[in-house]
Amino acid sequence: MASLAAPLDTTGVPPVRSGQLYRRHRLFVRIGHWLNVLCLAFLVATGLNIFDAHPALYWGQYGADADDDRRWLEIGAATGPYGGTIGTTRIGPLRIVTTGVLGWNRAANGRLQQQGFPDWATFPHNRDLASARRWHFFFAWIFIANGLAYLAWGFATRHLQDEVWPRLRQLAPANIWRDVVAHARLRFPRGDDDKHYHILQRFAYAGTVFVLLPTMVLSGLSMSPGFDAAAGGVLPQLFGGRASARSIHFITMDLTLAFIVVHVAMVILAGPFNQLRSMITGWYDTGRPR
Ligand code: HEM
Question: In this structure, which residue's CA is closest to atom 3 in ligand 1?
Fold first, then answer.
């Protein structure tokens, strides 16, 4: 995500000369970032395959076929008003017709089928709970190891404290408002002003790194009987039960997808060549100051 705010040096880090290429991202961050993208792509696609085994969500300790009155979310198929089958998605009292995408969609072999998420969105591209679980756990452990390494490296080098965590002075309402207006006007920072993340970018990154992704991982681990036994059953209780943990796992996955959509949109708006070059080679051009 690119930063868009007006000038405010809040980092205390000495400015680099403007309008030049400079090393924006360290090798460790770059490798970790793209490994993260690979892991999340597989985690989402395999997770949707696993979800399709029981496309409903509950709050509390449990939830199964017989508890259909306790579902807060369910995806299914029904007979439509003119006959024929329609896909439906219900979130609380809100029921939406989602034919063709959720509930009733075309299988990889071209036939229509009753299934939560369609085959094209899942990995593997057919109903295969056993394989989906194996791939999910494989990428989950890589994702966790990568995340812990990023946190350890980030704290040790002060990257997280200096460059990602919001600085106290940036939290001034006037500065937040300035950044909101700059984003709304798509006014991209130039020169020294573009050397450090601004406040909205820090909110997004810090929220993702310190809240969203850890909650997604912990709610996932809550559903692992092996981990649960080793941890003395504490984790599911933290989320209010295993069924709640599953719901929170699903919600944090959706919020992560929302972050990625906005993140990639900002990369495109800010100049995809320069942005992607910085996350691949490290080199970033700040442009000349206005
Ligand atoms: C194809 C998808 C993605 C693209 C093209 C992309 C691109 C980028 C780019 C260009 C930057 C540098 C922004 C800048 O220097 O201003 C960046 C930073 C970052 N991205 Fe992504 N990203 C993607 C997916 C993700 C995902 C899935 C996550 C995690 C959920 C993520 C989290 C982050 C974080 C936390 C940073 C800041 C890293 C740091 O400075 O320590 N990105 N991304």
Answer: 264
Mean pLDDT, the chain, integer: 92
Cα distance between residue 49 and residue 226, in whole Å: 21
Contact yes or no for 213/253 (Cβ under 8 A)? no
Whether the predicted pLDDT of 4 surpasses 60: no
* pLDDT tens digits, one per residue of 61-75: 999 999 999 999 999
**Structural class in CATH, domain 21-52+127-285:** mainly alpha
What are the domain boundaries of the chain?
21-52+127-285, 63-121
Specify the pTM.
0.91
Distance CA 107, CA 89 (A): 18
Minimum-distance ligand 1 atom for the alpha carbon of 1: 13
Taking the centre of ligand 1 as the mean of its atom positions, its distance from the CA of residue 33, in whole angstroms, is: 6
* Dist. CA 159–CA 57, nearest whole Å: 38
